[in-house]
Amino acid sequence: MKTLMLLISIAFMSFTATTNAASSYFIDQTKLPFTALPGATAYWGVHTNAGYHIEVPDDWNGELVVWAHGFRGFGKTELTVDDHPMRHFLIAQGYAWAASSYSRNDYDVTTGVQDTLALLKRFNGIAAKPDKIYMTGLSMGGHITAVIIEQFPKLFAGAMPICGAVGDYETFDFVLDFNLAAQQLGTDTSIFPVEPFTYVTATVPSIKANLESAPNTWPVGLNQQGENLKNLVMLHSGGDRPNFDSAWFFWNNFAEVESGTGPGNFLFDLGLSDGVMPRNPGNTAENIDVVYQFDTNPELSPEEQAFNDSIFRVALAPQSKNPNGLSQVPVINGNLPIPVLTMHNIGDLFVPIKNEIAYATKVKQQGKQDLLVTRAYRGVMHCDFTANEMVSSFLDLVDWVENGNKPAGDDFLDANNVAADDFGCQFTYGNHPFDTACPG
Q1: If pLDDT is split at 50, 70 and 90, which confidence band does 437 have?
Q2: Which option is the CATH number for 2-167+324-419: 3.40.1190.20, 3.40.50.40, 3.40.50.1820, 3.30.420.40?
Q3: Helices marked H in 37-169 — which ranges?
Q4: Measured distance CA(332)–CA(143) in Å, rounded
Q5: CA 202 – CA 216 distance, rounded (Å)
Q6: Higher confidence at residue 155 or residue 318?
Q7: Alpha-carbon span 34 to 43, nearest angstrom
Q8: Whose CA is closest to 119, among 155, 95, 94, 154?
Q9: pLDDT digits (tens, 9 = 90+) for 43-61
Q10: Of 165, 233, 318, 383, which is the most buried if we count CB atoms within 10 A?
Q11: Which of 31, 58, 53, 26 is nearest to 42 (CA)?
């Protein structure tokens, strides 16, 4: 669950740290060494102010799988490396893998791209230039994956963004939608940005109290306005789909769900940001043109019209979205140069499937839909996939790249398909927590 913790403020100190001179970020080099799997050699170190792990099997097949990790949190200064989640499978099948810590934390996709490119050069120096490179990444790493293959199309053979923010700004917009709508329905007014202390201690408790059907029944017992919020969140996170009730319950309880201390504020806590990234010059979320609805009827009811007329509107800073090149939150254009297979839990409300819809839409607009396969899974947590699910999808991607056999996927652009009872069942292998079973 580390990728979920956005509001982190931790000061790390270490006498054995390597410090980036331009920032407070550091690498504890005592944590870098790792033991190679049998029949492989492990390499680690610091390169261009980023830590790295590389593992190469003795019977290397000449192909490399790169891993881009997810968001570490704002304010976290220690840079750490994640091993590839398919590490054991990859080494057993003859693939080498490599992963970087990046030289910065925060939501900094550009740094992730640049440090991944530096990692590739480092790998070439340690092992050899690979015959093929597969790019894989999780969450923000999925955003990095989608950007790097568009910006550097000749480097990679295939890509697999996992629970990725492949809609670039869509996740920020969803967080804005949730918090403004909750304010408007729960307090008859809305504002952005919020004053964090007041929002947590007064506004959020008031919202919950005013949207529940009886005291202390949030998020299960809702009055009509509470149901309106729930429906709005469903529609604006990706549409009507199975297991949204489980997703709504989980994400309005996290992170307290494991401790049993009562409903959590995770989705509200995401709204404490002012929308400005550490190296971005302006607000990165907007709702100027959003039409909010409480049901699937495209015609606005008087109630919906009144809501749209009254909700606070936020404009995107003009300099925030640059359609070309690299910025801190780079735009994904959908101009795919290679086969791409995505994986996404339909109940994820941290990086919701709104991202997959936006990505597939852009790819279709570019006329590159033959190079995209999107897959839905029944999980409600963020990046909760079984080993079989990940390995199966990777093998299908490899077969597609090497033999031209495009694998099956799920159509996120067909709202009726997304709403079907069995949506997400085709590729779900094994159990996922919080009532995600398929029918039958």
Answers
A1: confident
A2: 3.40.50.1820
A3: 87-92, 109-126, 140-151
A4: 8
A5: 16
A6: 155
A7: 8
A8: 155
A9: 999 999 999 999 999 999 9
A10: 165
A11: 53
Q: Name the token pair of 308.
A: 């749209």
In this structure, what token pair is assigned to residue 342?
């995505």
Query: Residue range 266-274: average pLDDT?
Result: 89
**Among 205, 196, 328, residue whose Cα is nearest residue 271:** 196
Identify the DSSP state of 36.
P
Query: What are 66's two structure tokens?
Result: 């790169």
Domain parsing of the chain, residue ranges: 2-167+324-419, 170-310
**pLDDT tens-digit profile of 298-310?**
999 999 999 999 9
pLDDT in tens, 339-375: 999 999 999 999 999 999 999 999 999 999 999 999 9
Q: Which two tokens stand for residue 159?
A: 């890509």
The contacts found for 402-411 with CB under 8 angstroms, 24 or more apart, are 406/339, 406/370, 406/373, 407/341, 407/373, 408/373, 409/341, 409/372, 409/373, 409/374, 409/375, 410/374, 410/375, 410/376, 411/374
CA distance 67 to 90: 12
What does the alpha-carbon distance between residue 196 and residue 239 come to, in Å, rounded to a whole number? Answer: 30
Is 290 or 437 the better-scoring residue by pLDDT?
290
Model confidence pLDDT, tens digit, residues 80-123: 999 999 999 999 999 999 999 999 998 899 999 999 999 999 99
Q: How many CA atoms within 13 Å lie on the side-chain side of 372?
A: 28
Rounded Cα distance between 245 and 81, Å, is 35
Q: Which residue spans within 117-225 are E strands per DSSP?
A: 132-138, 158-162
